[in-house]
Model the fold of this input.
Amino acid sequence: MDEVKNNIIVPASDYPRVVVIGGGFAGISFIKTLRNKPVQVVLLDRNNYHLFQPLLYQVASCAIEPDSITFPLRKLFSRYTNFVFRMCEVLSVKPEQNRITTDKGSLTYDFLVVATGGKTNFFNLEQVKASSLDLKSIQASINIRSRILQNLERTVITTDPAEKDALTNFVVVGGGPAGVEMAGAIAEFKQHILPYDYPEINPDIFHIFLIEADTRILGTMSKESSLRALTELEKKGVIVLLKRAVLSYDHINVYLNTKETLHARTLVWTAGVTGQYPSGLHNLSDKQNNRLRTDRFNKVEGSDNIFAIGDVAFMTDDEFQQGHPMVAQVAIQQGHLLARNIINILQNKPLMLFKYKDKGTLATIGRNRAVAEIGKIKLKGYIAWLLWSLVHIVSISGFRNKVLVGWNWMWTYFTYDMGNQMIITKITDNKK
Ligand SMILES: Cc1cc2nc3c(=O)[nH]c(=O)nc-3n(C[C@H](O)[C@H](O)[C@H](O)COP(=O)(O)OP(=O)(O)OC[C@H]3O[C@@H](n4cnc5c(N)ncnc54)[C@H](O)[C@@H]3O)c2cc1C
Done:
């Protein structure tokens, strides 16, 4: 009786049940491919929306509204006859019982697909974790936006020059695409919003620092693109500090390994991502970056019916001996192939090996400026920016969201007016 009471109720079905944890890029690509196929798909997510993470930095920098990069999962699959959604936090997996437990009850599965993505990696820097802001969720991006605007409101009324300095210093840690795009967007904010919305503040006191431990930013791209991005950022006034690592941060002092100290009331950490998944699978994980080791069919090592796709999956082949990059295209392609392989399993057909097709890398550095690498083709400047804009509009879920983001960008492009400078949640120095 208890057992039944604690179960998550899903409609009865004669089909095998595939439980998917996570409605990110990997999860939704998997489900789309299984549309109305002879399986019951149960999607579990802690949120009721899909999040387009690549544009989080635009929410954080007041360029677009949070709603335009989120899409309701129920709406996304409303026409699917074999789809069930339950909003819950998945806590653990019991592989020997084919059962998962969640904060809302438990559920059995025939196949389990772990598509839980990653979380910010602070590399055990606990003080940095407690004092900084990350950029991994919609709440986090709204927090950054609030922090910037609150700090400016405080700057206007403070008379202490040292505090004024800290309030108007903005530090981004991590020179990957997320950090570069974040720093570039804040530079645009400084140029196009600050002088008009905050005429009391001299823009010259607003400093943006980008800190990278490596010898160059955008380390996964060619040296040419990385140099180009560096030049563009510096032209926009971003102070790029290479070969520096953050050792600690206490809400105001940023301590670097070079013994330098910066004073900043805002530090955004984009320097690392690590896998995340419910407990019960830990002994199956890759120790180095906490992703689940899988074979080339995305089957989690040591299991027959548990699969991992996207950021959480650690799959190697000759070309990707350290695993695939944690990017959306890998997640989408793995989701699609696994869905086809699940059908193959049910039909006793041979399975297809995963082979990643790299469609290229893009990073933007604000208006009209971007770098793009597609195979051997390298693009920069306006053309790369146009391509970046097109790729993102096409990739966002939902026609309404495409229109919203496209309209926002066009409006901002011609008017320089962003219009999202609202402090919706108040955020204190001690609160994330
Ligand atoms: C700021 C930023 C910028 C980026 N820019 C780019 C870019 O320009 N290009 C690119 O290709 N990639 C980019 N990425 C990476 C890209 O977003 C990820 O590779 C992609 O989201 C991975 O997809 P996924 O489905 O594996 O995981 P996610 O998209 O992270 O989805 C995981 C889902 O699982 C859910 N979940 C997790 N754990 C649980 C649980 N225990 N219970 C219930 N639900 C759970 C989450 O709520 C989420 O919906 C960026 C990422 C960030 C953070």
The pocket of flavin-adenine dinucleotide is lined by residues 21-27, 44-47, 53-54, 56-57, 89-90, 115-117, 135-136, 177-178, 276, 278, 310-312, 326-329, 331 (CB under 6 Å). The domain at 126-271+363-380 is CATH 3.50.50.100 (FAD/NAD(P)-binding domain).
